[in-house]
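Late entry, evening session. Most of the bench is empty. Finally got around to the prediction I had been postponing all week. Sequence below, unchanged from the version circulated by S.P.
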Amino acid sequence: MYATMYKSPHNTRAHIVAYKLKNVPNRYIMQKLPWLPWGQFTRLASKIKISPYIKLGHGQAFSATHKYIYAIANDHLLRHSSQSEEIMQISKKNLQIKRIWTFKIWNKSAKDGRYMHNATFLNDNKFVAVYHSSTKHRFEYWEVTAMVIVGNQ
């Protein structure tokens, strides 16, 4: 299991914690893992690996494939931004960043940017994301396929 551990809800940098659960006392404890006292967390989990403090965004675009963890490391406080976003590819073996890509999605013009706040990686070459326009009261769902994400470079 993988969890992100942020110091506060406004941070965009965090640790990734990888662990295997031994004994879960009840099904609701899983919702509280990021806020458990460290001693209680270590009693529940074994074989803990912790990443360095890295840029992960706000945590709603965080998912994993067979070999990698992916995060869209964006700032959820930005509104109507036409800035590029970053994808972090993180190795599951050592929880280190392997690659970083930038991407940008827009409709008609680069000034009409689509800043993705939520996404799920389906595999090493594809993710689906949602864009929400609060001023236009609509959602857009985007499927993004890369030509080569995992390839050697």
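Two things to note before I forget:
The mean pLDDT is 83.
The chain has one domain: 2-145.
Will write this up properly tomorrow.
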